[in-house]
Design brief:
The protein has helices at 7-17, 29-40, 54-60, 69-76, 100-108, 119-132, 154-164, 183-186, 198-213, 218-221, 229-241, 287-294, 353-370, 387-394, and strands spanning 2-5, 43-44, 80-84, 88-92, 168-174, 177-182, 246-250, 253-257, 275-276, 315-320, 323-333, 338-346, 375-378, 381-382. With 396 residues, the chain is of the alpha+beta class.
Length: 396
Amino acid sequence: MTYSLSAAEARKLILHAQLLPAAKPAGKSLAATLSAIEHLGYIQIDTISAIQRAHHHTLWNRNPRYQQSQLNELVATGDVFEYWSHAAAYLPMKDYRYTLIRKHAIASGEQRHWYAPDKSLMKSVLRRITEEGPLMAKDFEYKGEKLGEWRSKPAKKALESLFMQGDLMISGRENFHKVYDLSERVLPSHINTSTPSQEEYARYLIRAYLQANGAGNADEIAYLRKNTKPLINTHLRNMVENQELLKIDINDKQYYAFPKSLDLLRKPLARSKLAILSPFDNLLIQRKRMQMLFDFDYLIECYLPEHKRQYGYFSLPILWNGNLVARMDCKADRKTSTLYIRHLAIESSLKNHDGFFEALGNTLPDFMRFNNCQQLQADKTTPASLLPQLIKLTQQ
């Protein structure tokens, strides 16, 4: 049996699964942050600092009481660790064993990450960390030319190779610089370190994706996970046959969901709450999915030459009333404690401008505090006729 959802129902299901807009979490803030990471499965790490970095931004949108120190604290307590999801990410420690598939493939040479491994240098680096304890890339002296696309010194490449194949883990960060240590010294003793079978791995990928996203298909679940789609397809069929999953039709395309996920459709969505999202938010990371299900065609433009940018260097998608309705290019100036809104572009589908600006006005003070800003300046809107409404918010 195949269930059918309208586009609006699908968006509601997805937003509830993504914990957006955030409800005020009960209990301690640190526990709420860990709960969000475990529910979403990963939080992407990014270095761009036009505003607060993406990993902090994504968690702040799920836990309004989030503090930036909490990620370091959760790494230190062994509840969270850094590794690769579809990109560099913080992952729940309880899922550690599912990273071993990639690690073994890299260690065996079956899969390559960024760098061709320098086995001799890797052995030397590993020996130093074994003998001296945790080290950073800067602890390895190198006066030669930095090579490659990322201009990395050889020891940094060796550290990353050892990290990717599982010999090293990140025990913490100092001023955002990674501190590397032996995996056995970082891993909590109770963590399962057995390598999952292919069936276990496929079922984990399916469960994790559908828990965090409400509905999905094999293309989405296998996103940037090489050679996993056939296995995922097989287990999706098996899980439907075993009544673990439902087939769902959305916009004439087949998706899968847990039966219990449809209960979320009976839960009200906080439509009046507005959320200013990171470009690397879990909701947004698969752009084709956003275009198909939210009719939102998004491209992050910081990687484009300035003359090719339509919306701005770092435009932030805005969620309101169950839809992605705008994008706002922002810059936090730490010296002057000013949040600059370079460009607020409203989607043509949004007609209730007054309601939107009221919701934006309610959200901006919290967003400014999150970015350690006390002043707000607005430069441009699209349509241009809406600039007076935005400027009015800067004067409140």
